[in-house]
Amino acid sequence: MAGVDLYWLPLGAGGHFVRLNGRVYETLAARLQGRPARDLYHSALEVVLPEGTFVIEQAPVHDWSGIERGVVAEGAVGARWAGRFRIFRYEIRLWRGGQIPDVAEAVDSPRRLSDQEQLARRVLEVVPQVPTPVWGRDELGAGEMWNSNAVIAWVIARSGIDAESIQPPPGGRAPGWRAGVVVASRSGVEGTAAANPGRQPTIGP
Fold this sequence. Notes:
The protein is of the alpha+beta class. Helix content is about 25%, strand content about 25%.
């Protein structure tokens, strides 16, 4: 009755514009690094407990009703000043009863990371503590940009699960994953948004 599952979704699943931009980015990155281009993946978690199922994911701010999606933190996209506008903000969801968008397109998923209830509850506990630096930049000096994969890797590592050994599907890349692992290994929590008790989702029975 307990489990922590990792999902790998192709970047831009369900959205042709994001997918096209991802392919352009990966093509340029591959040429600069002298390697073949790979498929890019975005990650999300699903935590199963006796009292319900919780989805953990970083996504664009949909609207201002974040409490309905279990939003525990927000951050800016591209530049800190741009975060004043909703279109340039991301949200971190701890969504009880939620669903991962386009989960039908997930590859090599779900991957069961743990079936221990204690670890599953620990995952939920650390989500509101996740750092919220500017998306797409390396404000925390991790050597890689901060993005959705960084958030998931940080949550996994802070929970006590080995995130460093996790690999994306064969032939794919998960940009930002290393950033989450690096930041999670540091003492303290850098760039964490202040907790807002009024927005914390109910995670008890």
